[in-house]
Write a structure and sequence with these properties.
Elements: H1 10-22, H2 26-38, H3 40-71, H4 75-96, H5 112-124, H6 127-136, H7 148-172, H8 174-183, H9 185-208
């Protein structure tokens, strides 16, 4: 199945995915919060909930985008430039943020099932996740390789695997990792600049991408 993906750009996709996922953000904050408040198992369960939510978002984007482009071909350019603008916006916002404050708030105890559902619902009901996938994933597809929806699902799964692995490691090392990030503004700033640069680069790449 992996051969359906354009292998020439797969290393770029994986590198971008790992860099974006490793930068501190809302998902990592949620995992850190649960891990710090209820233990590592709760953190891992929250990471799995986030993963399921992202997979649902990927499926929605894959099926919806394919149907839309088939019905209205002119929408392709709109989606392309809107997605490029969104990625560049994310990059600029990240660059202008000197650091993410990862101070974990106090959380009320909850069952593991509830923590899992919260992770799922938080992602499914977050339109920013769908917007990101809509802007990020399509530029790594190739119609000559097979059905675009399937390629989007495969790419989304690969992106999600990297994010889940990183969040799981964060859950396992929550006390050390969380306090280290809070003490090291330079490290967090470096991650922000790296992620911001990748967002902007991907946005420019998407804007210049020609329809195949």
């Amino acid at each position: 199945m992996i051969t359906m993906l354009p292998l020439s750009i797969l290393p770029l996709f994986l590198a971008a995915s790992w860099t974006i996922n490793i930068a501190p953000g809302p998902d990592m904050l949620y995992v850190l919060t649960r891990s710090a408040g209820m233990g590592r198992l709760a953190g891992i369960v929250s990471a799995l909930g986030i993963a399921v939510g992202c997979l649902i978002q990927t499926g929605i984007v894959a099926l919806g985008l394919a149907s839309l482009l088939t019905a209205v071909p002119l929408v392709y350019d709109f989606i392309k430039y809107a997605g490029a603008a969104y990625l560049i916006y994310l990059g600029l916002r990240t660059l202008l943020t000197s650091r993410h404050t990862l101070i974990t708030p106090t959380v009320k105890p909850a069952s593991l099932w509830r923590i899992f559902l919260q992770g799922v619902i938080t992602n499914v009901l977050n339109p920013k996740v769908a917007l990101f996938f809509l802007a990020f994933l399509p530029q790594f597809t190739d119609p000559a390789r097979g059905p675009i929806p399937l390629q989007l699902i495969l790419l989304g799964t690969l992106f999600n695997i990297s994010g889940t692995l990183i969040n799981s490691v964060v859950a396992l090392l929550a006390s050390t990792f969380g306090s280290w990030l809070k003490r090291n503004a330079r490290a967090t700033t470096l991650l922000n600049w790296l992620s911001g640069g990748i967002f902007i680069g991907l946005g420019v790449r998407l804007a210049l991408l020609k329809r195949q």
